[in-house]
């Protein structure tokens, strides 16, 4: 735990070391040795609890507030008495707020419980929730991106702790920029149908801020996270006439109550605030798993058998799959399971059915046969060769030719007992154990259904269509990762040149572009264009807010993502499948179709080599082998395969390959080249074959001359300039094996 989280109170910058602190430490030094064993035991058993408490009262551009300073000071004292390592900060401007979140986020990674309390101004604008630093000057909706702190940053940090992350906002007060209306002619408000800003990706004039700001937008969180609002979404909170606001006052009266479960704590606060104000109703967002959680007291961790629960949780999903690998992983993980016999029987059934189906395919070698096999056995042993052969047949088919129909037996239905589908809700431990078995499954329905039921931002397990899963970049992760970069820090201090340098290094960290506009005085159109471009790229997709504006924006982004995914197959096949189908199939088949076995071998070798030389990837190797295999003897197929492999490897090094990370999935880091380039194993979306290569976005930072943009908008890499071969994972493994032997 960083030392500064043991200190109670700070202003915007930490005060100097005080003499009375030194005297106190000297006074207690005499009993330190006596308490060592007790202290060590307490550290071993107590929760690792941290808190960040912020009170913003001294606003510079709007009237000051009184209560937030008191609310935060009193909350910091209460949490300190509960054993939390508290950092109490007052009157934070944007950059100090950012730095505090970075330090707290790093500490939260190893914490059991983490609490963030903010008192001050907060608003909803542009469909998102924002916390207002004391130096903010917001005149239009786009200004909030550079001037305010997004609530999602606090939620992202709160996902990290092991037991619970709690975000408490006493921040939905009335319009903080009311007094600027006369001078600016605009006011701060939440978006409305009359003032929603430009459409997604469409530049336009800044939306004026209409009067009547009303509260925050609801949020949706996952994992062990709770977000508490002083007032329900769309309503405002009272600042109060006493020392504390009604909400903070009630929370302070009960937060130290021993063994008061956290859900009941906020129920009591809700009822008290409602009774005191007559209208204000606090709200809580998030659902915690089973097991009581306390702010004052040890959490009651579920005591059920994690292993037994994990078996039940996993079995509910495993029992529905026809993928043999997933069934085997379950059996290996739970060898004593009552389902072991059922799984062995099911695997034998699937293997027999697939072998029968493949016999039909090899006998007919038709479009209909290969398509039927791929539809019925998408996880089968022969999927890769079936896909490549089907592509080749489709390209060589005559215009108007149809595949026809074929009667091919599919996998037999599972015969599991209905009782074996029973499952429990599962503890966090059992859910993660079950996920370890299921996450490698190629059966996307299994993975998707599990993510739907047990979504987790912490484990990168989210439903495919959710707003959380749509986020291509997590700005909070970028904030933490770049915290030590001097250019980034100088950028947030107002250095425009440092912002420009930082943007080149971290092009997806859009907050740098917003700060560049801010440091230049926000010249005409700067923020408007920056926000529009970030929206177009999907970098502003909301993870948590649920305002009507954000729902519309997310629906639009889903449509964009769907269109991109539809084009991915065309991008990849244009480089691999189309070339392979047209060039390899025609060249090889024509050259060898009527040749004798020995002559065909030589002809196939020459034709495949020439064809693969024009192909864009080493997929030509497999395609050439199968194309030749349909026309000549096994000897010809083998020769074509060897020649195509060598030629395709050379060809791939002379052309640019689509290497944009947006085209890829199932990405796994393998190691680095001698030049420091990271190599990955991955699949192109819609393609079952695994390849080994680089990511264009990374290469662009190290060797920009090797990266270009195709007409499709995706980045491509010239492997020749990098001195690398573009290979299938199978070929890469073969080379690794030979290298080890040599």
UniProtKB/TrEMBL annotation:
Coiled coil: none annotated. Residues 396-427 are annotated as: Disordered. GO terms for biological process: proteolysis. Residues 47-124 form the Caspase family p20 domain. It holds the Pfam family Peptidase_C14. GO terms for molecular function: cysteine-type endopeptidase activity. This is Putative caspase-like protein. It comes from Bradyrhizobium sacchari.
């Amino acid at each position: 735990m960083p030392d500064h989280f043991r200190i109670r109170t700070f202003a915007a910058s930490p005060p100097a070391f005080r003499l009375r602190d030194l005297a106190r430490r000297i006074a207690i030094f005499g009993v330190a040795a006596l308490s060592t064993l007790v202290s060590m035991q307490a550290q071993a058993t107590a929760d690792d609890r941290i808190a960040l408490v912020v009170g913003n009262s001294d606003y510079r551009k709007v009237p000051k507030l009184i209560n937030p300073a008191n609310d935060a000071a009193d909350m910091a004292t209460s949490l300190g008495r509960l054993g939390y390592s508290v950092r109490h900060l007052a009157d934070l401007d944007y950059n100090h707020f950012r730095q505090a979140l970075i330090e707290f986020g790093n500490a939260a990674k190893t914490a059991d419980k983490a609490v963030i309390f903010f008192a001050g101004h907060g608003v909803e604008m542009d469909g998102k929730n924002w916390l207002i630093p004391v130096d903010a000057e917001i005149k239009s909706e786009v200004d909030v991106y550079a001037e305010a702190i997004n609530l999602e940053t606090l939620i992202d940090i709160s996902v990290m702790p092991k037991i619970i992350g709690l975000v408490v906002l006493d921040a939905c007060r009335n319009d903080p920029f009311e007094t600027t209306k006369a001078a600016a002619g605009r006011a701060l408000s939440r978006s409305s149908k009359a003032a929603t800003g430009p459409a997604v990706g469409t530049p336009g004039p800044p939306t004026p801020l209409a009067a009547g700001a009303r509260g925050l937008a609801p949020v949706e969180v996952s994992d062990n996270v709770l977000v508490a609002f002083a007032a329900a979404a769309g309503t405002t909170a009272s600042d109060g006439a006493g020392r504390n606001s009604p909400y903070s006052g009630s929370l302070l009266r009960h937060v130290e109550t021993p063994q008061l479960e956290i859900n009941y704590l906020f129920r009591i606060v809700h009822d008290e605030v409602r009774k005191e104000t007559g209208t204000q109703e606090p709200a809580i967002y998030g659902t915690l798993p089973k097991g009581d959680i306390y702010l004052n007291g040890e959490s009651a961790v579920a005591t059920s058998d994690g292993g037994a629960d994990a078996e039940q949780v996993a079995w509910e999903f495993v029992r529905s799959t026809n993928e043999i690998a997933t069934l085997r992983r379950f059996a290996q993980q739970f060898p004593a399971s009552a389902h072991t016999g059922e799984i062995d029987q099911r695997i034998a059934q699937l293997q027999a059915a697939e072998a029968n189906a493949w016999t039909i395919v090899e006998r007919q070698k038709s479009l209909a046969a290969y398509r039927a096999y791929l539809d019925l056995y998408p996880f089968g042993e022969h999927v890769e060769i079936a896909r490549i052969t089907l592509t080749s047949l489709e390209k060589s088919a005559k215009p108007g030719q149809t595949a026809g129909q074929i009667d091919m037996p599919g996998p037999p239905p599972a015969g599991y007992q209905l009782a074996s589908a029973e499952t429990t809700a599962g503890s966090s431990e059992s859910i993660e154990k079950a996920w370890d078995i299921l996450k490698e499954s190629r059966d996307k329905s299994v993975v998707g259904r599990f993510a739907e039921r047990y979504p987790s931002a912490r484990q990168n397990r989210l439903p495919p269509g959710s707003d959380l899963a749509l986020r291509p970049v997590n700005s909070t992760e970028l904030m933490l990762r770049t915290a030590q970069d001097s250019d980034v820090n100088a950028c947030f201090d107002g250095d425009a040149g440092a912002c420009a340098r930082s943007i080149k290094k971290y092009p997806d960290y859009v907050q740098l572009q917003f700060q560049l506009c801010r440091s230049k005085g926000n010249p005409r159109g700067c923020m408007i264009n920056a926000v529009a471009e970030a929206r177009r790229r999907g970098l502003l997709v909301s993870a948590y807010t649920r305002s009507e504006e954000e729902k519309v924006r997310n629906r639009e982004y889903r449509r964009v993502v769907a269109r991109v995914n539809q084009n991915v197959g065309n991008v990849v096949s244009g480089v691999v499948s189309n070339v392979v189908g047209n060039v390899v199939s025609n060249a090889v088949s024509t050259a060898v179709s009527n040749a004798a076995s020995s002559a065909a071998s030589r002809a196939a070798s020459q034709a495949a080599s020439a064809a693969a030389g024009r192909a864009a990837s080493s997929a030509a190797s497999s395609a050439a082998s199968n194309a030749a295999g349909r026309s000549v003897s096994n000897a010809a197929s083998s020769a074509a395969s060897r020649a195509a492999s060598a030629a395709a490897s050379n060809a791939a090094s002379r052309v640019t390959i689509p290497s944009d990370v947006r085209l890829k999935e199932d990405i796994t880091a393998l190691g680095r080249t001698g030049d420091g380039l990271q190599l990955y194993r991955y699949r192109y979306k819609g393609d079952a074959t695994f390849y080994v290569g680089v990511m264009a976005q990374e290469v662009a930072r190290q060797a920009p001359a090797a990266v270009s943009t195709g007409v499709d908008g995706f980045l491509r890499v010239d492997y020749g300039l990098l001195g690398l071969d573009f290979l299938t994972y199978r070929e890469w493994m073969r080379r690794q094996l030979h290298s080890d032997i040599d």
